[in-house]
């Protein structure tokens, strides 16, 4: 009898909850107030952090005018032992700097493209409500900066990325990161927070092949990744770079996936996620083993570490973890907790097979070339310069990329006028041109090369892929400069 009464009470309560839930269906934000109407109070400069670090929590601060100052850098860094890659980065790291805001902030975003960079870029932030997520207002050439602003209207964890053509290539080179929009009052306090982002990489050489590896467009199109990694390289979260925690601490991981192609089956070997903000949004799932994070998506993962040992972050599409690098470590120190787990703890049991890559002195390319003594030496120097400077756009065999980068192979435009070609490399080129019957209307930025280097790279191009065999000398370059 008593039991029946109780169960009726529970039903009534349950009904009440459903009604009250339905009553606030429109407002994902502060008690009925739309985020558009949240007033800002004061101005601050955003603290930006490189992975695996995240900026300080917003806590109870009101919405503010937030200045974000981000610089794009194209730079060579290590992908794996003995393997390097030219990354294109937001803020000098892959993933790019972490941006932390709160609901209702007015973000004034300044994007700078370093003068030494070779390419124009822009940024599309998934946290932005507006054309292209900001991409249409942020296209910026090397040596320039641009400012645009937006208001954060939805709380959550969002991906940002470059959206300059060819978009896939810019993303594949590391141009992505995360921006967090905290709800008013902030997320609940935890002991440790970390920033982890997965990405897939496509290199001319196969996994482990040493040296500076150029991007491989065809493998990217085929989704045939050579590396799948957390935070831009196979070593970013292992060894001395492992994440750390102490027994009893609560951990929050901001996990994103830059792609460009592969969906992550994100898992931590030896843990169960107590809470997952599914897809980086408001929905919270509990007691999760593996959470799916698509390219251009994110999740907030929380768990308490109860016992000492090494927890291993993986993409549970497991060949990616043990053979392509998608592996990170969280070292938990502290007292044994026999109630939770007891047993032999073996050091290094999860060493990736990718960690056994043979290290060889990588060919980092020639230092600043001395004057070439012969045509063949000039071509040889030019070939190295081409790989470093032009290949990213015009491709390995000079074939270009349809409707983005014109071909240099058998190019009627190139072969018709050598002085014009010299001028293009020196000063860049924009506006409509026709190459082998196809129209291009894009931007090639000026290349920062010495006269000797311009001569060598063009001589290589003219003596490759069916072109007319012209030799370009430094004197021709100097003359072209003075006649300009
Ligand atoms: Cu870009």
Automatic annotation (TrEMBL):
Cofactor: Cu(2+); Cu(+)
Recorded GO MF terms: copper ion binding; electron transfer activity; heme binding; nitrite reductase (NO-forming) activity
Pfam families to which the protein is assigned, alphabetical: Cu-oxidase_3 (PF07732), Cytochrom_C (PF00034)
Record keywords, A-Z: Copper, Heme, Iron, Metal-binding, Oxidoreductase, Repeat
Annotated positions binding Cu cation: 121, 126, 161-162, 170, 175, 316
Catalytic reaction equation(s): nitric oxide + Fe(III)-[cytochrome c] + H2O = Fe(II)-[cytochrome c] + nitrite + 2 H(+)
Domain Cytochrome c positions: 377-465
Database matches in CDD domains: CuRO_1_CuNIR, CuRO_2_CuNIR
EC number: 1.7.2.1
Entries under InterPro entries matching the protein: Cu-oxidase-like_N, Cupredoxin, Cyt_c-like_dom, Cyt_c-like_dom_sf, Cytochrome_c-type_DH, NO2-reductase_Cu
Oxidoreductase found in the keyword field: yes
Taxonomic superkingdom: Bacteria
Entry annotated with the keyword Flavoprotein: no
Similarity field: Belongs to the multicopper oxidase family.
Subunit structure: Homotrimer.
Name of protein: Copper-containing nitrite reductase
